[in-house]
Design brief:
- It is a single chain.
- The protein is an alpha/beta fold and 980 residues long.
- Helices cover 38% and strands 11% of the residues.
- The protein contains 33 helices and 27 strands.
- Helix 1 packs across helix 25 (760-792), helix 2 crosses helix 25 and helix 3 (55-67) crosses helix 19 (538-555).
Length: 980
């Protein structure tokens, strides 16, 4: 009998499963799950999902969804633009598992490729915005504006404490205004939506208003470029405020930069650098700032440091800002980014180079000018004569113009009843402009922009005069061969899921099936603008509704919203729902949130973002919530408690027996229960958070439901709620911001109604192909694999916490603390040494310092699990050599790991690398299997402290990589810059 087709998504086959079960002493995966999961929360009936589909049927269903979407020329704009993804990038990055299956680069030695690609992105943003420091991407433009507002409040805290306000330009996109108002209200930041010009700033200052900062939109949402930007910036500065400019990155190729105008911060979206519309996302946002503000930036920064041999190497910089360290004091709750999309945008700049980008930007602008000239000659009035790509024109009946254009294949923006907006994109042609002139103005003309002269156009007085993208990486690719090899070379410097198990606890690095990935670049999905009329997105809306329904059935909740575009945003949305629920009941005093001390740091950071104060609850000896301490906290804080955030299974990797008691105690106190979905991979089909006590959860579609991590994004963090919280789900970010929102009810949390919709087909396909039975067996297998590793490594690295019957959940925490005490070998040493065995390290030092948290997922077969077990046992033998006094820890192979190919073949290996304490073979080939299939890290152990002391966040000069007269440009791509 053939195995069920969902078995393709589960690693162990029948023989593997039987062997593991025999080792553990259980007769079936059902028996193992019954022994691990508390009977009090076990799901009563199978998950009510449609019958599972095979791959062919799933693709056919997706084709049916896609066929219901209507493709047109997307000229709506509003922050989402028509762009062309170069085939060389689509094929070699977006569709390449070497790029999309990579994890966040927390282990930088095996992440040098994607770190370089992200550094290219940062350098591109810095150059184009004219500001010296940029981050490695944010989630979308709307949340980036909100982050900038909170950043200005932190930087100008003195003015904020005096009751100062932040001015929010009414010319921003509605989504940016609404999302920022959501964040500001939750955080208690006074924000005023107003025209931001010299006169307004002066008037407010003269009235006694303290100005913390201002966000200026350039261009405006209607396309107008500011001719007074330097004056506005200077006026705000004179009044003691800071200035953020929301900019169009492609316009910055031509026009003067925010930095030149004196701005402190610049934000925006990099979507039009080769990233499809995706019905609203995922898209990489950017934030850049003055150098003195870099330590207050939200999100991630890639920096340049050196490795153990002094070779330049990349890493994430300033990690003390991260949530797992600073918790509710963190700069933001963002624990991910849009890394894969930032990589695409950076490669787009590499592929085109500065000349190519100027050509693209000039072509777009020339056609916008041709449209504007034609409309003006027809007697129509333009909203502005100064624009880059967007022309807004006054007409007598805007809805009829938009409808007529739609009939002829063009989507335009209905600004209001008498204004139409047209945003020219990369694929817009002269013939398109001629057609638009006929539709809008009745003009029948021929359009030819081939003779357009930029210096003689409307931007002539506003063009930038400085050089952009001067680094060799943007100036050495002249053929597809070079580009292909550059991307391959970077991919080879990474260790992604296409090479090896990534056993990261709480991160769920599982199979991202090719059949799930295939549809996302279909034009019928990828080419839909998020603001199209609903009848053009019927397929999208049906797919999203069906996915939300399936997720609700899986989790046991009443309703789901997919708007949150990261797990952190799902947390925020869930906590915001709790807060606004209490406000709706007149219980304003409920501002405290209970969070176990072991919880992930984003829980606390998200709580702070939602305006809640964190009260820590102790952990018991077994890692569960300490019920006695919980009782004390409830008694002490009573009706001030808004709720509790718990992760289940616990962050310690066990199923807590009394989770239902925790929920009951908090409910009895009038609080709500938030269950973090980070560990849902152990629950699907076995237990439902919405049934055993949860009021709200967020899920991680980039974990349990197989959207790939992409080196640190995209992510999707849907929020799931019980019936009474449905009114508080996220709302439309494109609602009119001039209409005061309801005092209670939902608020938007990201810039598109359905968040990162473009990757939702991945999760839909996974769920559709697994069905209820397959999803349940996947959860059982995740438990099986984790318990197998825990069992087999017990003698070498004991598991810190276990639950009923000595079992763990889907992950186990290996305790190295006693070994460290005896030997001096740290968990970090083991992490670096695992690279030499061809493995990504487990989660380091979380949730307990001195430990490693391992999550194999259901995707890994027994052979891969055994390979990991062999590596860990070999490392234990290396630790024993230190304990036995055979070698000092500082001389051990562990402390010197990892080893590059160059380091083990150099003639002076014993003098320069091992100092006679270990052999080349021990360094590079500690187990025999590596002789046939060996991965070498690109650099040796990186000096983190050096990188933070000497912060460099832009592509280093090529000469920085000069070794013996040859250059490995790091970011350079020509033949003479090849690896040594």
């Amino acid at each position: 009998m053939a195995a069920p087709h969902y078995q393709r998504h589960i690693g162990p086959d029948a023989d593997d499963t039987r062997a593991i079960l025999d080792t553990l002493g259980y007769g079936s995966t059902e028996a193992l799950a019954a022994a691990a999961v508390p009977a009090s929360i076990v799901q009563d009936t199978p998950t009510d999902l449609p019958p599972a589909l095979d791959e062919t049927a799933a693709l056919a269903a997706l084709r049916d969804f896609a066929s219901k979407n209507t493709l047109k020329k997307q000229l709506i704009g509003a922050g989402y633009h028509d762009t062309v993804t170069p085939a060389v990038i689509r094929r070699n990055v977006v569709e390449n598992p070497a790029w999309y299956t990579a994890y966040t680069p927390y282990q930088p030695e095996i992440s040098q490729g994607r770190l370089e690609a992200l550094l290219n992105f940062q350098t591109m943003v810095e150059d184009l915005t004219g500001l010296p420091v940029a981050g490695a991407s944010l989630l979308d433009e709307a949340t980036a504006v909100a982050e900038a507002v909170q950043m200005m409040a932190r930087l100008n805290s003195r003015a904020a404490k005096k009751g100062g306000v932040i001015l929010l330009d009414e010319a921003l996109h509605d989504s940016s205004i609404n999302v920022t108002l959501t964040r500001a209200a939750a955080a208690g930041l006074p924000v005023t939506v107003t025209p931001v010009d010299v006169g307004t700033v002066r008037r407010l200052a003269e009235e006694g208003t303290v100005i913390v900062g201002a966000v200026v939109s350039n261009p405006a949402t209607t396309g107008e470029l500011r001719d007074d930007l330097p004056e506005v910036v200077a006026e705000v500065h004179d009044r003691g405020g800071l200035v953020t400019v929301a900019a169009d990155l492609l316009a910055q190729v031509l026009v003067r930069s925010p930095g030149e105008a004196g701005a402190d911060i610049a934000v925006g979206s990099a979507q039009r650098f080769g990233v499809p519309l995706f019905f609203g996302g995922p898209h990489a946002a950017f934030l850049s700032c003055r150098e003195e503000y870099q330590r207050k930036m939200p999100g991630r920064i890639v920096g340049v440091s050196v490795d153990a041999e002094g070779t330049p190497a990349y890493r994430l910089a300033l990690q003390t800002r991260e949530q797992h360290i600073r918790r509710d004091k963190a700069t933001s709750n963002i624990c991910t980014a849009q890394a894969l999309l930032a990589v695409v945008a950076g490669f787009y700049a590499v592929w085109h180079g500065p000349d190519g980008l100027r050509s693209i930007a000039t072509g777009i602008h020339s056609r916008a000018v041709a449209l504007a000239v034609g409309l003006a000659e027809a007697g129509l009035t333009l909203a502005s004569d100064l624009f880059f790509d967007t022309v807004t024109v006054e007409v007598t009946d805007a809805p009829s113009i938009v409808a007529a254009a739609c009939d002829e294949g063009f989507n335009l923006r209905l600004v209001d009843d008498i204004h139409v907006g047209v945003s020219v994109g990369e694929s817009t042609t002269d013939a398109d402009i001629a057609a638009l002139l006929r539709i809008i103005a009745g003009s029948r003309v021929t359009v030819d922009t081939s003779g357009f002269v930029l210096d003689e156009g409307p931007l002539s007085g506003y063009l930038r005069t400085d050089d952009i993208l001067t680094h060799p990486v943007f100036n050495t690719v002249s053929s597809e061969t070079q580009m292909m090899r550059y991307m391959r070379r970077l991919a080879d410097r990474d260790l992604a899921l296409d090479r090896t198990m990534i056993p990261l606890g709480s991160c769920t690095m599982k199979l991202n099936a090719a059949v799930s990935m295939e549809p996302i670049t279909w034009p019928e999905f990828a080419g839909i603008h998020p603001l199209v009329p609903e009848d053009q997105a019927t397929g999208w809306l049906e797919l999203i509704s069906d996915l939300e329904d399936r997720l609700a059935k899986i989790t046991g909740y009443a309703a789901v919203s997919v708007q949150p575009n990261a797990g952190s945003q799902g947390e925020f949305a869930g906590l915001l729902a709790i807060r606004r629920y209490h406000l709706s009941r007149g219980e304003d005093q409920r501002t405290l949130i209970l969070i176990p001390a072991s919880a992930h740091g984003t829980n606390a950071a998200s709580a702070a973002l939602a305006g809640l104060k964190v009260i820590a609850v102790k952990s018991a000896a077994d890692g569960s919530v300490d019920l006695a301490d919980l009782d004390m906290k409830i008694m002490e804080y009573g009706d001030r408690i808004a709720g509790i955030m718990i992760t289940y299974p616990s962050t310690h990797g066990v199923f807590e027996e009394h989770v239902d008691a925790v929920c009951e105690k908090v409910h009895a106190a009038g609080g709500q229960v938030y269950i973090d979905g980070a560990n849902l991979n152990a629950l699907v089909g076995l237990a439902q958070p919405g049934v055993f006590g949860g009021d709200v959860s967020h899920l991680n579609l980039h974990k349990t439901f197989t959207i790939p991590h992409g080196g640190g994004g995209p992510g999707v963090g849907p929020v799931c709620v019980a019936d009474h919280l449905i009114p508080f789900l996220p709302t439309d970010p494109w609602s009119d911001p001039s209409v005061a929102p309801a005092v209670v009810g939902g608020r938007p949390v990201s810039g598109a109604v359905y968040g990162s919709a473009g990757v939702l087909p991945i999760s839909w396909t996974y769920i559709a192909m697994m069905g209820g039975e397959g999803l349940t067996e996947a959860s059982r297998t995740a438990l099986l694999n984790a318990n197998y590793i825990s069992h087999e490594l017990a003698a070498s690295f004991p598991t810190l916490y276990t639950g009923s019957n000595g079992l763990v959940g889907h992950e186990c925490i290996l305790d190295l603390r006693e070994l460290t005490r005896q030997s001096g070998v740290t968990a970090a040493d083991v992490s670096k040494r695992l690279m030499d065995y061809g493995f990504h390290a487990p989660t380091l030092a979380f949730p307990v310092a001195g430990t490693l948290m391992v999550e194999p997922t259901e995707s890994e077969d027994k052979g891969e699990l055994d390979r990991f077990i062999t590596a860990m046992r070999s490392i234990r033998a290396e630790i024993d050599e230190v304990i036995d006094g055979k070698v000092a820890v500082e001389d051990s192979v562990l402390r010197h790991a990892p080893f590059t190919a160059e380091s083990v073949v150099r003639d002076d290996f014993e003098d320069a690398v091992s100092h006679g304490h270990f052999t080349r073979e021990k360094a590079a080939f500690p187990v025999r299997s590596l002789r046939r299939d060996k991965y070498f890290p690109a650099v040796r152990r990186i000096d983190d402290a050096y990188g933070d002391r000497n912060l460099v966040c832009t592509c280093p000069p090529v000469e920085a990589f000069d070794v013996s007269g040859e250059t490995d440009g790091g970011s350079a791509t020509s033949a003479e810059h090849e690896e040594n």
